[in-house]
């Protein structure tokens, strides 16, 4: 009987050990989750425009999928395609679904739901017709930087004035987070530019659009001079 009892106590001891969650210093909390708790809604009569697959694929690729909870660069409890569970460290009090891990299809469902706030921001803040690629690129941008930063951006102003030659330079400005340049943001901006001009071709920028522009921190937003 000694061996079975030892096994029982050994198993029980393992069960009481504190769980450890992975740390990922490259994962940046999506700005859409740092907005006020009140969710935006579409005006009456306006329907939510879906994001085409190529757009969702960009967000998925850049966020990366994690089936189990982990801590992002801000040490926030996160899962799936960058879905924020809470603005605190994981501690075992998370919903059972997340504690047990999620499948990739479930992660995709959660991402589609999370993207709705970005879609609403793009639909209500832009004043010109957008192609599928333009719409998707802007939705990914808002998901990353937040609706408030988007609303005050020169990028949005350029889009609404249909000054599309200025768009690449404006995307590229959003390359910093928490005071440092992030390689992943630079890569993401180039992919957004390609998506924005999908099927159209990236225009040659005017000399003034190519001028050196100050980089923007996605946690601070654009500071107008």
Please write out the topology.
Blueprint: H1 2-15, E1 22-23, H2 53-63, E2 66-71, E3 77-80, E4 83-86, H3 96-99, H4 104-114, H5 116-125, H6 132-145, H7 147-151, H8 154-160, H9 167-173, E5 176-177, E6 180-181, H10 183-196
Parallel strand pairs: 1-2
Antiparallel strand pairs: 2-3, 3-4, 5-6
Quick overview:
The protein is an alpha+beta fold and 225 residues long. The protein has helices at residues 2-15, 53-63, 96-99, 104-114, 116-125, 132-145, 147-151, 154-160, 167-173, 183-196, and strands at residues 22-23, 66-71, 77-80, 83-86, 176-177, 180-181.
Span of the ends, CA to CA: 78 Å
Strand-pairing-aware structural class: alpha+beta
Order of helices and strands: HEHEEEHHHHHHHEEH
Provide the helix percentage.
Answer: 40-55%
β-strand percent reads 5-15%
Low-confidence stretches: 5-18
Question: From the alpha-carbon coordinates, what is the Rg to the nearest angstrom?
Answer: 21 Å
Overall shape: globular
Number of DSSP helical runs: 10
Biggest sheet: strands side by side, in what order? 1-2-3-4
How is this structure best described in words?
- With 225 residues, this protein is α+β, with helices and mostly antiparallel strands.
- 43% of the residues lie in helices and 9% in strands.
- It has ten helices and six strands; from the N terminus they run αβαβββαααααααββα.
- It has helices at 2-15, 53-63, 96-99, 104-114, 116-125, 132-145, 147-151, 154-160, 167-173, 183-196; strands spanning 22-23, 66-71, 77-80, 83-86, 176-177, 180-181.
- The strands form two sheets. The chain has a four-stranded mixed beta sheet. The chain has a two-stranded antiparallel sheet with strand order 5-6.
- The longest helix has 14 residues, at 2-15.
- The chain is globular and about 50 Å long.
- Residues 5-18 have low confidence and may be disordered.
